[in-house]
Amino acid sequence: MPRAARSPTSSGASVARPAAIAGAIVILLGGAAIGYAVTRPAPGGLSEVQGAAIASAVGQLDNDITRARAAVQERASTLSKLLPVRATIGTNAATVADQVRRGELEFAPGEGEILELAQIKKAEGGAIEELMVQPAGAMHNMHDGAPGSYADVIDHQLVITEVAEVAPKYTQDVYRGLLTVSRPVALAPALAPLLQAQLAGKLEASGKSIPIGTPPPDGAITHAQALSAQKDVKLTIAEPPSGAARPVPILGAGIGGVVIGLLLLVISLLGQRGAAARTASRALPAQPSPPSHPIGSAATQLSQHPIAAATGTPAPGGSMVAAPGDSIVASNLGPGTMIGRWEVVRRLGSGGMADVYLAQARGDGGFEKLVAIKVMHSHLARIQRAVDHFLDEARLAARIHHPNVVAIQDLGKIGTDYVIVMEYVEGVDLERLLMSARAGQRPVPIAIALGILCRICDGLDAAHRATAPDGTPLGIIHRDVKSANVLVSRQGSVKVVDFGIAKAAKQVHYTVAGETKGTPAMMAPEQRVGEQVDVRADVYSVAAVGYELVTGQAVNLDLASLAHLGVENWPHLPPPSSLRAGLPVELDTILLHAMAFERERRPADCAAFGALCEAVMKRHNLVASDKDLARWVDGELRQLSPAFVGATAGLSGSSPA
Fold this sequence. Notes:
By secondary structure, this protein is α+β, with helices and mostly antiparallel strands. The protein is 35% helix and 20% strand. The strands form five sheets. A six-stranded antiparallel sheet has the order 12-13-14-15-17-16, covered by helices on one side. Helix 9 packs antiparallel against helix 14.
């Protein structure tokens, strides 16, 4: 006799019972692990949260101290050159006090600031004679009259001091003058994460220390944290004592076990119900399932198309189409697969936030269009701040309509992944062209260099002037202008790209106060120390790109690395005309002023800076049409060194964030 078939109901029940038993066992084991974890202390050490708190404190302190140093250096440099100040050297404290009282010598210390004026008689062994201290009676340190920048602990405050020379007006043969400017650093914001993480330690400078939290017991294990830009300040953190934290891995495993056990119990219940439901539904006709539509950021073409992956059902055209809810798997996106309605040609590059692909759309009559598609890394799509950051880039760039800015063509969400579709630029990024030209000792023709510079200014000016649909200015500032973010096409077009960290007056994602983003080597000083920036920060960076273009020399203007050189003579670069014969000497003033430390000394915006460069081109009959640029690009691409052949990553239309 033939063997009787098992019913769906009995089959479902047979599956459900083992799941229920396994769930109960896993719950018991997980409960035991939780009990062990909560009844036994863990060894001391720094947790991941505490490590993050230390990293945050170190970064904030570095920024705050760098900002304070720059401020006191600028203040001391300005005051020490004032004629009334120079004239006091060689007098005495009573005379200076009288001058201050009559208003002949005006000092107005800022909040928390301490000013001191002193002199040293050269013939008497260098004894310091104090002429004035403001506010009167304030604690201060002249550091034996040695000019320089110092960090001191005074009255449980970290004080940054700049000692500057004052050149006497009348008594230079007898005296040397000194001016000190001191300013305390607000430590509370930087140290708050340490206190919240229940960490203790101390901040040390000039042989003294400021305690952080409750002093650790004798013999506690400590970790010294050097500040990258501050050689005279050290942060020391003590490890929490043994028993301060529970054995987190065991506790986590226990909780995970309980969760898995509960899931198994739920599965067993669902299995029993599902078996019964299948039996009941055998007599019912099948109903077509309603179409699913992934939720996008906006109603775009992307949100209407499924994602192609390397697995799935073959589509009529031979490509593989995944279900609409699937994620894009970067390793599967080979040639011929689909991203929405776009067919992947090849991968162009990858960055910390996204991968970039060259893709094409095909239509009737042999229509083809190439685009660059930026696909956000899947693991970042679960982090709302990263998603806001990614979407802000597209929203901001989409409001900029100018031939010198890469155009955004679409933005959407396919399944669980966010993508940006951008204009495809057939060419290479300017950084690779400059590196290759520099390696081959081929200076960029002056007309070509200035032509590229003016086009960058035009694109940035369009970004700065972009408006919302209602006409409200968006206040966009790029904040990461550099040669790598400028694309030059084979047709001679120049396009600014990558508004991934752009700052706007209105946007979903905001940079945290004091947070520094961008490329330090090309970054304006106020941006480097975390202050608010305006369009003059982009003027500064585009001038740095211009300096590289016309001189062929790479620049590094990282304030943290150059703080020891001071503000005077910033940006500490030789005049461009001294590095290259035949360069118009007017460019010396134009470029170096645009990179001034004080933003007030720079051109008001990129339009003003570009106009100055255009005037030089007209005055010297320098012409750079798109055809001229195209010929130069073609020549450089033909000579591109093998070391820079990977330059096609710049074809993406946007460098990954």
